[in-house]
User: What shape does this take?
Amino acid sequence: MAQARLDQMGEEKEMSFIDHLEELRWHLIRAVIAIFVFTIAAFISVDFIFNTVIFGPARPDFWTFKMLCKVGEFINSSAICIEEIPFKMQSRKMTGQFTMHITSSFVIGIIVAFPYIFWEFWRFISPGLHLNERKISRGAVFFVTLLFSIGVMFGYYIMSPLAINFLANYQVSEIVYNEFDITSYVSTISTLVLGSGILFQLPIVVYFLSKIGIVTPALMKSYRKHAIVVILVLGAMLTPPDPLSQVLIAFPLFGLYEMSILISKRVTKKRLKEELARQKEQQ
Assistant: This one.
């Protein structure tokens, strides 16, 4: 489908399907280059990435555990102060550490480059939007980046350390010791952090669906019970198989769902008002 774009002379022209593919190719190339650059940077900074970032949530001196200890001191209870996380890390495959070095660097590259990736995607589709569509999507890059960052921070500072502590202390028998493989550990952290960032895009999705009339606040309210089930299923898919992680991701998602209802209500009200105004102008 052809869309109008401005050429270098400022004149409007119609782009063919091949032209669209060529332009999309360059947007994808620039996005991949950004991921590659940040991946290389993360790969080189192996000591900081692993000892500080990746293994940080597994240490008692991590920021989250320090805050829990301060809360425990405030309420005069040492029960929530975590002073030890009893597990050992090991690599059971010959290529385990090298593979996880590459994998973790790539995930970090995606996370850091995400704002630029979305910006490239937005640069490709925005010229094809109508003027009113551009207006309603103003600030999309900022809000998508903001929600993604909040989701990543939630996954890293809340879900990851609490899930690690729960799983490290969980034992079916005293004779069974927790010795986590580095592959399992890095995969769990990556899934929690990246999955949280993606799931926190719910308000943006609801905003645009409400703008085009697919989603309404009444619809979201009527399917609230179904949404809870879907949220729990998503939590089970994107978190380790333990109830704590599922609950941790389910609570903010349900909060985002309720926030999305308010957003949909506001957007739908404005959309209906604009449609009524256009009908009056046509009469």
Residues 1-13 have pLDDT under 50 and may be disordered. Strands lie at 4-6, 12-14, 88-90, 179-181. DSSP finds eleven helices and four strands in the chain. The radius of gyration is 23 Å.
